[in-house]
Amino acid sequence: MKKEQLYEGKAKKVYATEDPDLVIVSYKDDATALDGLKKGTIAGKGAINNRMSNFLMQLLEKEGVPTHFVKELNDRETVVKKVSIVPLEVIVRNVSAGHFAQRYGVEEGIVFDEPTFEFSYKNDDLHDPLLNDSHALALKLATKEEIDAIRAMALKVNEVLKAFFLSLNVRLIDFKLEFGRLSDGSLVLADEISPDTCRFWDATTGEKLDKDRFRRDLGGIEDAYNEMMRRVFGA
Ligand code: UDP
């Protein structure tokens, strides 16, 4: 049973339930980009991200990655374990794109020998600055053990998802994860995994099938999300 709204973020709302350890997330069609400067809606996005994220979380659970997923309620709403989010955006990259290409002055599309792993401090007021392990420790954002566990889980997620998407003729370029602590302190993968939080390129044509179409005004954004949905669910 959905009770009071606890929180409203850029792309989701979170509601309490009768169980203090469970909350309901409700996915919106709202989209933001460029540090919140660009706002819009992507019709049908909420339902696509909800269903795709739930599917991928269940795939990852089967592969031994603990997640917040509990039960899909309907198109847009899912019951998840209540967590306190570790304020780190965890980014894994297989190919140069986005901020990596900008920051280091290289073109997009360079294939890395090994995936890269980075943290940003999840703090909108500070514009999510990049930080390293020692900064995260100094700021007491996570313990050393948590950082090690997060790195191991993020790289495992990359292995599982890279292979899964390649089977759909999609290259997983990069993605962002968030982790949360349950009431007993254990870490689980939380937030979402969707075309909002991953870069997907068609493996044959290189076409972008993710939120970069919105960020960069490329058009065809709904078509790209629908295409990813079709490939994942074979609809
Ligand atoms: N990303 C995200 N939320 C953010 C920042 C990045 O989901 O606030 C994802 C983004 O979709 C991409 C990956 O993390 O798949 C790497 O993003 P990057 O650092 O290149 O920043 P961007 O150019 O996306 O702002």
Q: Which structural class should the secondary elements be placed in? A: alpha+beta
Sheet bearing the most strands, described?
7 strands, antiparallel
Query: Average pLDDT value?
Result: 97
Provide the β-strand percentage band. Answer: 25-35%
Rough outline: globular
Give every kind of bound small molecule, once each: uridine-5'-diphosphate
CA radius of gyration: 17 Å
Helix content estimate: 25-40%
Structure description:
This protein has 235 residues and is α+β, with helices and mostly antiparallel strands. Helices cover 30% and strands 32% of the residues. It has 6 helices and 14 strands. It has helices at 45-62, 98-104, 133-138, 144-166, 212-215, 221-233, and strands at residues 5-8, 12-16, 22-27, 30-33, 38-41, 69-72, 77-81, 84-85, 88-95, 111-121, 130-131, 170-181, 187-190, 198-202. Strands 8, 9, 10, 11, 12, 13 and 14 form a 7-stranded antiparallel beta sheet that branches. The protein has a 5-stranded antiparallel beta sheet with strand order 1-2-3-7-6. A two-stranded antiparallel sheet has the order 4-5. A hairpin with a 5-residue loop joins strand 2 (12-16) and strand 3. The longest helix has 23 residues, at 144-166. Uridine-5'-diphosphate is lined by residues 89, 91, 97-100, 128, 174-176, 197-199, 211. The site of uridine-5'-diphosphate (UDP) has 14 residues, from strand 9, helix 2, strand 12 and strand 14.
